[in-house]
Amino acid sequence: MTELHKGPRGQRRGRGARERILDAAQNLFREQGINNTGMNQLCEVANVSKHTAYQHFTSKDELITEHLRQQDPGTMPEVFDRADLTPRERLLAAFEKPATSTPGGTRLCPFIEAAVEITDPEHPARILAREYKKSVAARLTETAREAGAVDPELLGEQLALLLDGASVRTRTLGTDTDPTAAGIAATLIEHAIPETAPPRPRDSAGEMPRA
């Protein structure tokens, strides 16, 4: 398990407490899970009092939800917003291993982790995780449409399922399954998008024209 460091002493109050709490939550939730992390331990790692923690987050549930919001607020902008790549290349880039991935590539997607650990389907974090996964599939579908896919909705759902499956299998086995997932994605894309299909242009507002 990665050693978790406490925040600097003498910074219990004032600016930076919120960031330290979120950093501690990210590390602890990743290393030992959401349900196994209590507020006492989280406050100790963040070097804040419980009073300060509850000034920033009214409950652990609110902290979990904000933790998820911080993970990927733009829905993979490092992939989908890259102007230097063609739409087909952006689809493939979704399966490239992030430069910030943990050693061994064993970190589970935090949205999947929250959905697994939190049983209440109406919990704000569960709702956020569900909406995030829908947004990933939507962006994959939009990019597949730009690339000229015959059935962009189907390809988007296939690639979204592949991303999530690779994340879970990597965490379960403790081995890097990204190269295998990338190979499968390339095959799916090759069959779904004719090589001669021209990318569909966006309009001046950045939207795809309606058929």
Structural description of this entry:
- This protein has 211 residues and is mostly helical.
- It folds into two domains: 17-70, Orthogonal Bundle (Arc Repressor Mutant, subunit A); 73-192, Orthogonal Bundle (Tetracycline Repressor, domain 2).
- It is built from ten helices and no strands.
- The chain has helices at 17-32, 39-46, 50-56, 60-71, 77-80, 87-93, 110-117, 124-147, 152-173, 178-192.
- Helix 7 (110-117) packs antiparallel against helix 8 (124-147), helix 8 packs across helix 9 (152-173) and helix 9 (152-173) packs antiparallel against helix 10 (178-192).
- The protein is elongated, with a radius of gyration of 20 Å.
What CATH calls the topology of the largest domain is Tetracycline Repressor, domain 2
Low-confidence runs of at least 5 consecutive residues: 1-14
Q: Give the overall silhouette.
A: elongated
Percentage of residues assigned to helices: 55-70%
Query: pLDDT average, as an integer?
Result: 86
DNA-binding region: 38-57
Keywords: DNA-binding, Transcription, Transcription regulation
InterPro entries: Homeodomain-like_sf, HTH_TetR, Tet_transcr_reg_TetR-rel_C_sf
Domain HTH tetR-type: 15-75
